[in-house]
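Late entry, evening session. Most of the bench is empty. Finally got around to the prediction I had been postponing all week. Sequence below, unchanged from the version circulated by S.P.
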Amino acid sequence: MYRYLHVGSVRLAWKDFGGEGPAVLRLHGLFGRATTWEGTAAWLRPHFRVVGLDQRGHGLSDKPDGAYSRDDYVDDAVAVIEALRLQPAIVIGHSMGALNAWVLAARRPDLVRALVLEDMTAATARPDPGAWVRDWLSDWPLPFSSMAHMRAYFGQPALADYFSEVMAEDETGYHPRFRIEHMVEASVQIESRDHWEELDQVRCPTLVVRGAESEYRREDLQAMAARIPGGRFVEVPQAGHVVHYDQPVAWGVAVEPFLLEVKAGRP
């Protein structure tokens, strides 16, 4: 069930996945939405209260112009945690959501109990920030005439499953639930510099997860875990960037024991 709250003039959509126990807030990656965490929520619910946020510019949340900085995303997460009284929450983030999660933990350690960072690097700087997002999205044959057309375009079943969650139908066909210019802006904000400074301020228990076939360098993600006191690193075989879609069972095997340790107060 989706519900809504406001951060200033921006209406944010959040999904209550149910469950009881310590709170888990999930932050999706660029292009995604809260429903991409449905499979993960199924094994979290017996142990945790599970909430997912459609981050600004994504899903059912508002899509304002010029508002996709780290401050914007972190302020949204703070507002959700405080409004829903989730603190201190375990925050699970994928890609951009992982970056937002560790910046949140650095700035507001009182709100974050632990982190799971799925396939994101702190070595984010690129010589042409946002270019790959602009070029890739510009090549999409929009609108897709059908979901079958969309799935055939993406090819890989896991990738097609992921993007099927972010499509909406109108009279012309299927379009993504985001605006290309906002995704480019968000990626520029990510890729204009590295984010080691914020990572070095994290002090809560943290699990860094990498897909073994990810384009992000293993040594960078290992360094991320090493720079956080008590940080851990795990790699999931035969998984690319979206680990929880590529290898959902192995993802759960990698992450669930850490979360149960956090719940028991052991890390």
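Two things to note before I forget:
The mean pLDDT is 98.
The longest strand covers residues 10-18.
Will write this up properly tomorrow.
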